[in-house]
Amino acid sequence: MRSHKVIEIRNLTPSTYIIRMEKNDFTFKTGQYITLGFSGSIDRREYSIYSSENDEHLEVLIKEVENGLVSKKLKRCKPGDKLDIDGPFGHFSLQNDEINKKKFLFIATGTGISPIHSFIATHPEMDYRLLHGVRKEEEAYERDSYENGNYILCTSREKTGDFHGRVTEYLKQNPVSSDTVCYLCGNCHMIYEAYDILEKQGVQLGPIHTEVYF
Amino acid sequence: MKKVAFKTLGCRLNQYETDAIASQFQDNDFQLVPFDKEADVYVINSCTVTHQSDHKSRNFINQANRKNPNSILVVTGCMANNAKNELESREEINYVVENDRKSSVFSLVEAHYKGEILHPSKLNTDLFSYGSTEKGFHTRSMVKIQDGCDNFCTFCIIPSVRGRAVSRPIQDILDNVRDVISNGAKEVVLTGVNIGRYEFENYKFDDIVEQILELEGDFRLRISSIEPDGFGDKFLGLLNHPKMTPHLHLCLQSGSDPVLLQMRRMYTIKRFKEIVDRVRSVRSDFNITTDVIIGFPGESDQDFDATCNIIKELQFGHVHAFKYSIRKGTRAERMTEQVDEKIKTKRSELLRGISDQVKKQYRTEFIGKEQIVLVEKTNGKIAKGYGEHYIPVEFSGEELKKNHFYKVKIKSMTAEDEPVLTGEQMI
Questions:
Q1: Chain A neighbours among B 100-129 (CB < 8 Å)?
Q2: Where residue A160 sits, what CATH number does that domain have?
Q3: Fewest C-beta in 10 Å: which of B73, B140, B313, B334?
């Protein structure tokens, strides 16, 4: 377990925020997650790393959970506070031999965009499209980070996105070519449904290319 | 001569570690006695994977204390990590030794008898410094290749109590295997928490298996429990090696994709079936056994039916099913749709019925065929042991000896819940 000093909190919506911390000598593979909690506290939660492998700092994207214990406390942390980090964990990673050769489709719901942001920030030269499923446009977290045309916002509760409806509906209407490498991150139902749709469209999904958010 | 008694709960890795510790005690003039007998030292190698494991560990602590309140009572294993404060507060327990210091249990007891009271925190923390297991409890010689797990399945406490994945250097493993073979071991079993994720320098799990299979000697290799996500085509290609036993314990956990996702398992049912098909294409009677969790949060009747159906479809040789129980600190602890205990019990009974039936069907197929049995117990004329498929066999013959291979013609099967193949030695 390592202790990292908080640099800043960036509020993206009333309930979603990014904590930027000192990186120190921490290393990770883009797509991995950490467990985070206040120094000395036993209450910890898992968060995918939002920042790039190469950034000088470490960032996580957090959605405040209603009645949640840790996400509410973390939102109140201030620059200079110490957070304990354990990890990195997980096998949700890009294959080195594919990064510059293949075209990618990333599908995320809500804050499930976090590891995808890290993928793209680490390898901005990648040939990718990103489908981001949210309820409202305000949840299009830092969409300017993605190149124009590569980010497709699917909004289910309002018509303000690039597509009105769920990501799975978008996928049905816009089939994917079978040579696309797909990574899915977000809630269980989306992954289950999208997996099925992609498979029917002839995409071979590697078993490690999914990460569930709860 | 001082007496020592052991009780091991849980996984094969624990069994291996107990074997190694027991051998060390025997090498130092301790007499091994059954756990229900009076002993000078009791060692409980605990498990904490379910509530039931915790309960059993507590019962064995009480039992040891009742047998000899003046004994040295050592509790180690995963419960020692997970419930350290509780165990340390119990006066009857002399030492609570966490997993990473388990290999030094003998040093602790030895020091105790010399009047030096060592605190377990001062013990060596090498995860792989166990000695040989030749005098332990098993004929099969277990070799530890790995410890810990990084998968963080949402139900599982093991990464917290066994720590992050660590792999033993390949040369140490090969030396260990050569050593046990030269000491007469006929069956080597690879153990660890998540052995499919073995990774040392550039060597992966299939490399270690390949190199062990290439070693000289009259032995066979058994892979213990393995996750379906941790190996590739090279490993599958090694399954038809003459030294490889046709048995894999491939952990399924659920037959429903939505439940597998919630568990954060890294495979789908389709992928699992593909692996089973690939394995059975090597040998159609390959014994595939598995683990199933019943009543994981959110498991619907439909999800449970899917699990029952896949057990029938894949014809598992044995299903180790257990009811889900909340483990503190895991992600599933915070899941809201916990399944009622009565429903879990009902599903358990149903699933047990199905898996017993499937097991009987699978084992019946061996009647009339041959098995190479490694004898574990014998009176010279009747012997018990396991065939290459890891099915228990009892057979008759002449001048039968322990730790020898015999070719046996299977004639019938007993009618118990755990059916035993019966047969005769082939000359």
A1: none
A2: 3.40.50.80
A3: B313
Q: Are A77 and A162 part of one and the same domain?
A: no
Domains in chain B, start-ordered, CATH in brackets?
3-122 (3.40.50.12160), 370-425 (2.40.50)
Across the interface, whether the CB atoms of A214 and B331 are under 8 A apart is answered: yes
Q: Which residue has the tokens 């228990």?
A: B392
In angstroms, the separation between the Cα of residue A75 and the nearest Cα of chain B is 20
**Domains identified in chain A, total number:** 2
Residue A211 distance to chain B (closest CA, Å) = 8
In 3D space, the residue among B378, B6, B19, B339 whose CA is nearest the CA of residue B176 turns out to be B19
- Which amino acid is it at B261? L
pLDDT at res. A166: 96
Query: Would A95 be classed as within a structural domain?
Result: no
A90 touches chain B (CB under 8 A): yes
pTM equals 0.84
Please state the rounded mean pLDDT for residues A99-112. Answer: 95
The CATH number covering residue A71 comes to 2.40.30.10
Question: What pLDDT was estimated at residue B16?
Answer: 87
A125 with A150, same domain: the answer is: yes
Cα angle for residues B34, B50, B91 (degrees, 5° grid): 55
Q: Touching check for A208 and chain B: CB below 8 Å?
A: yes
- Residues A18, A80, single domain; the answer is yes
Could you report the average pLDDT of every consecutive run of 10 residues in chain B (427 residues)?
Answer: 93 88 91 94 92 91 92 93 89 90 90 83 70 65 90 86 88 92 91 91 94 95 87 88 96 95 91 93 94 96 98 96 90 91 97 96 97 95 96 96 96 92 94
Of B229, B262, B266, the CB nearest to A188: B262
DSSP B295-342: S-TT--HHHHHHHHHHHHHHT-SEEEEEE----TTSGGGG-S-PPPHH
B264: which chain A residues are within 8 Å (Cβ-Cβ)?
212
> Is A32 in CB contact (< 8 Å) with chain B?
no
Nearest C-alpha in B relative to A92: B266
The answer on A170 and A112 residing in a single domain is: yes
CB contact under 8 A, B266 and A207: yes
Residues A185 and A118 in one domain: yes
